[in-house]
Amino acid sequence: MHSVPDLRWIRGSRLFTPALRRQLAFIQANRYQDEPYYVGKAPAGNAVFPHEEAYADQRCPDTALRILALCRFWNMVEYFSPYKDLTKPDWTRVLSDLLPLFVAADTPLRYRHAVLVLAGRLQDGHATLAPDPLLEQEMGTYLVPAAVQFIGQQVVVQRVRPDAPSPLKPGDIITHVKGQPVAELVRQRLPETPGSNRAARLRQIAREMLFSPAPELALAIIRDGQPLRVVAPSRLIATLPPVPRAIADSMYRLLTPTIGYIDMAQIRKQKLPRMMQALRQTQGIVVDLRNYPGDFVPHELASYFLAQPTLFAQYSQFDSRFPGRFLTSEPDTLLPRPGAERPYTGQLVVLVNATTLSLGEFTAMALRATPHCTILGSQTAGADGNRTRIVLPGGLVTGMSGLGVFYPNGRPTQGVGIVPDVVLSPTPAGFRDGRDELRERAVELLANRRPTP
Fold first, then answer.
1. 198: nearest Cα among 150, 147, 128, 127
2. CA neighbor of 198 nearest in space, from 156, 158, 152
3. Whole-angstrom Cα distance, residue 365 to residue 414?
4. What are the b/e assignments for 72-102, b being 16+ CB within 10 Å?
5. What value does the CA radius of gyration of the chain take, rounded to a whole number of Å?
6. pLDDT tens, 17-71?
7. 215-248 pLDDT, tens digit each
């Protein structure tokens, strides 16, 4: 058994009369044991809530329904989240802390921000809010066509679109947005930004930083040590075409004559045999998980690197007949490919960062369990396990991690993420020079190692 619910509240003499306490104890001992109506179990083991009313016709639900939204989310987490004990401050405080906020949220926009604060308190990367027209309008329908990311506490321009002229250059450090210091912007947005750890929250803030309600955005930057002020043109998001992939990009290729590369964003299960046959003679492979995998292949991909069965994860699943109780499963086992040739004997280097989330982290766990794997990069998003969908009054859709995922020894991944063996982050100079410093370091590591006999 992984955990049991805390039901001490039913014995509270300050709240309940002796008769009511006896009735609550009776309900606990004689609870409904058949398949529940409001809660189901998905094939993967996480909860589903198929019969909760969305009240989607109300942009701003009335006070009673706003309180229902708070209580519904709180109870779903309290009884069906394997990770609620990781929240700080304690999850039990959320109802009393946020009740005044939900009562006061008497406009559609204030209500949505209250829900964002609630989701942020869970500290779970699966608790993001689905795209919402009102929030998108508030954030802005224009976007400066560039990608930025946090390196430490600095926001650095990673790349700019080649098809959209911009005063920004890769390696620029953004210090102010519309006159506001980045540090202050982060302080304001953190409480309303769901995420399992600070790195994941900063990734989300960076993604939203260059949105604008107007066709230009005033920025203060540092370039080559010199402070500059620029006005960056913004483009209507609806008019921005997808960024075209470079011709050289593919699911797999050679970085050097002896080192292969796998882009997990493009991975497809049916193409694994052909890919691994093409990379079989290499002395090492770089597996890029700085993305969301294109297919569910943790077991299949790991099987190419194994000579014997290997434990790599165990799970905690809720007990549908005892809300709040979670049971630990038997450890999950990776198996060698049946009847296959000798496993791949080269080295693996797996690249991760805060974009590595959920399935990406689960895939990294599987590869880490293989004999010759090194994890290189920075802290991952720390949101492992299948997502449980939650619908709140007003038709707002969010979620939570509904399946507990742990290493075989019980060590958690939620919040912590996949801890790299070699810690490395990119630098402004690397972006400025158009270099992928993590991939370069991976190639160096592999070039200095020989295949295992």
1. 150
2. 152
3. 12
4. bbbebbbbbbbbbebbeeebeebbeebeebb
5. 24
6. 999 999 999 998 898 888 889 999 998 889 999 999 999 999 999 999 999 999 9
7. 999 999 999 999 999 999 999 998 888 876 665 5
